[in-house]
Structures are given as C-alpha cells and as structure tokens.
Amino acid sequence: MAVSMMNSKAPSNDWKPYSIDENDVPAYTLPDPLLQEDGSPVSTAAEWVNMQRGKILQLLKDGEYGEILPRPDSLRFELLSQRDDALDNTAIRKEIRIHCGMENGRTIAFDMLLYLPKKASGPVPAFLGLNFKGNHNTTDEDDVQCTGYIKPGVLAVETRADQVKRWCFREAVRRGFASATLCYHDIHPDFTQSEPYSAFRLFFTPEQYPAIQDRYSVIGCWAWGLSRALDCLEHEPMINPSRIAVHGHSRLGKTSLWAGAIEKRFRMVISNDSGCGGGALHRRKYGENLSQHFEAHETAGIPAWFVRKCRDYVMREERMPFDQHELLALIAPRPLAIATATEDYNADPKGEFLAAKAASAVYQLFGSKGLQADEMPAPDRYLSGDVSFHYRTGKHDQTPFDWAHYFSLGERFLK
After folding, report:
1. Catalytic: 408?
2. Which candidate in 250, 271, 368, 388 is catalytic?
3. What gap in Å lies between CA 232 and CA 122, rounded to an integer?
4. Average pLDDT over the chain, rounded to whole?
C-alpha cells in the first residue's frame, strides 16, 4: 500500500519548487528508450548495446552531464598510512593519495580512506563512494587525516565524526566487504569559481575556465574522480576488482548514477535519495527542479552541477529529448539500487520509483525481470532484484536501514 503525499507542505526555500501534490502532476509521456530515431523498435540486448545505448548516452552528455573527461597522462598511488588494528582490531585501514598528472606538468591529488576486513581469506568485494565532509567525518577513528579542502589550507568542515552513520564501516567489514571513500571537494570544490582547485585544472587553462560548462559538468568531474579511485582499488591485492559497487547520497547519488552509466567497471550502482537530476523523472514536475541547480545555486555560491545547455530546460522539462529512466537504463544489465525516503518530498520518491520501473524495459532485454512491482511499495519494504528499490521512513539522509539493503544486495551480486 502506497503512502499518499498529497496535501503535504513543502519546506520553505529561496527557489521555486514545483508542487508536491500529486493532483498537480501534469500529463506527460516518457521517451521510449527502446524506440529508435527511425521508429523501429529495439528488440534485443545486442541492438541496445551496439546501437541505441550510445545514442541515449550522447543525449545525456549534450543536455545534462557533459562529455567524459579523459584519463590523466599518469597515475600514482601513495600509501600515506596503514593501521592493522583499525575498527577495534577488525579491519586494516589505509589512507592512499591518488596522484594525477599530465605531461605538461599540471597535477592534482586527492586522498582515499579504505577499510579492509582483517580476516578475509582472499580478495573481497568493495563499496566506493564520495563523501561530503571529508574522510575524517565518515569514521569515529580520530587519527584519520582531514580531507575536503575548498582551497589550499582551507577545510570545508573541521569537525570530526559527523557522518559516521552514513558509512557503516564496521558493519561493512563484519559482512566481509571493503569500503572506500574520498571527499568530493578534493575533486571539485562545491563552490563557485573553484576550477583552479579542481581536476579541471589538469585539462584547461585559466582562460578556458569560463567555457568549461559548455561541454563538461561538475557532476562529470566528480564522476571522473570516482573512476580514478576505482583505478586505485584495482591495484589493491585484497580487493576483487570485478566486484566493486559505486554509491552516493543526494547530489553524490546523482554522481554515482552518472559514474555507473559511463564507467562499466562498476559492478553495481547505488543511488540514495538522488532526486532531480538523479533518479527522479523530470517530466513529473514534482518538487525539486532544475531552477535550484542554476538560479538558486548562483546566489548561494554553489556551482551549477550540469552543463550550460541544461539551463534551457528550467521549468520546461517536457522539452528534454530524454528523461532520467534512460540514465538508469544505461546501467543495464548490472544491478541497480534506488533508495528514497517518505519525507524527502522535493526529491520526488514516486518519480524515482517510476523511473526505475520504466528503466526495467531495457533490463528485460537481458533476461532480467527489472523492478518487480507495479505500484509504489509500502515504506520500509525492500524490493530486491536486478533493479532494487526501497522507500525508507524518514527524511533526506543515508542511514543504517539503507545500508542493510545495500549489504544484502552486495551478498547477492558482489559475492
């Protein structure tokens, strides 16, 4: 039984969200991911992989996430520290600096925090995700180095252990998984005019910075960082490189979806409360919309996360030649998990469910059943499969309840 969200009041914002009353959702038609430009249907997995997938990927590049940044000319992984009695002597903890360089001398480096189960008998599967407040806020171990710099010498967050429950490192290790994280600010600070401190500086000169958003996005830059972290994990002998899941919450859930779409090395993709520009359908015009990511962000000092072309669709989402179910479809046939929350009104929980359901048509080409539900499920019920979904009671957050589902899916798909 679905929980009604009608007549709920939206939180006050300085931007203009759409209504969160289902009665106000307009009539809309979603683009059919299995319909080619000439009107012919895609009927096999081979046709999807060889013809249709690339066309939809290009639409999403052009209109939302931008082109894919190239690999750096050089990569080097520096072990900064190792502790063999971490997390009450259950884990091995490593802090690794990922050095990226170009032949022209430009460089950037960012630090990854990695926990490995100490008693593992062989290479283990791993979870990888970006964090908001620095590695030192994902764990209660107070000797972890601070990360998350908005510019040299200036941390975004100086406190410690603020978001331990969002990471559940102890439970990951207990269940036999490695878990790794790095701060998104160290790849591209989430502030305007931060290109000099971001990975964009590898590929562009200061004179080119104003034009970056024509072809590339901040979310794309964060996703690039996840690929470099994946490169590093592939060199860790205690990790199975073919069994790594990417995950993210909120704007980093948007990032994990794009990273999973463009980086096929990720074995499983997890989106937690990603909303607009993530797992929710644009055409429903429910709750959060693109105006937040352009007009409101500019006044708040936050960069637009999407390419400049995406601005054309603010309050005109019906003009998009794609929608988010097609982003989710790009992950097929790999396992996909979408999670949302009952009070996360602006992220449109029902729109996330409907996107996952619509993406299932592509999964079915590969013999998968996709999302096995026709109606929005009751809160706190896990729907588990190649396309998974759950609808947690509560607010915009990532919690141990969410992780319980992700670990269960990891047991099924990563082990």
Report:
1. no
2. 250
3. 18
4. 95
